[in-house]
Amino acid sequence: GQSLEQPSEVTAVEGAIVQINCTYQTSGFYGLSWYQQHDGGAPTFLSYNGLDGLEETGRFSSFLSRSDSYGYLLLQELQMKDSASYFCAVVKTGANNLFFGTGTRLTVIP
Amino acid sequence: DTGVSQNPRHKITKRGQNVTFRCDPISEHNRLYWYRQTLGQGPEFLTYFQNEAQLEKSRLLSDRFSAERPKGSFSTLEIQRTEQGDSAMYLCASSGGRGKMNTEAFFGQGTRLTVV
Fold first, then answer.
1. Which residues pair with B76 in a beta bridge?
2. pLDDT per residue over A8-28, tens digit each?
3. Nearest by CB to A96, which of B41, B101, B109?
4. Are B91 and B37 in contact (CB under 8 A)?
5. Tens of pLDDT along B39-85?
6. CB nearest to A95's CB, from B55, B101, B107
7. Cβ of B53 under 8 Å from any chain A Cβ?
8. B38 in contact with A at a CB cutoff of 8 Å?
């Protein structure tokens, strides 16, 4: 089995930086992905970490530490449209299956 | 290609009835996933196909649930003898392709099932 833990809710101010943490326990770990989901919408891919370290994509960055079974998503220059739920997801070896955490609801306030 | 397509978008059914959902993945993707999502929760894994082979099925899934991907293209998810607890959004996703690892899954808009 696998388990992923994220904070359930985070609130941040427009223009600020926010970090959403994810810790995981799983067998056959291959990598960690992050997805964004707006209310009523489908999850959309944000980033993937297969190796330790930081991956940067525009305002979003994601970090992975395999030894600590830990990752985070960093959102910079927050905009109101970033208000959404953010999910970390474990990619597993072999079948390359994808298992999601329970998600973090981010609210950006003016 | 317009992405992952799911039909129907909404389904209301009476308890005890059978329902079937369809998912058309992105054409070159060989991996297909079904998830169930309830309000405030993350997508819960149901089952996974690589081409036409069903490689993994959640232990949470009762025998009332079955999925197929007969030709390695579209997939169907059937729920027999529906129960009110089956009410949820059913999401399909696909990923992969030639020489591409599973680092990005593309989701459909889902089928919202309401069992009354």
1. B22, B68
2. 999 999 999 999 999 999 988
3. B101
4. yes
5. 989 999 999 999 999 988 888 777 899 999 998 899 999 999 999 99
6. B55
7. no
8. no
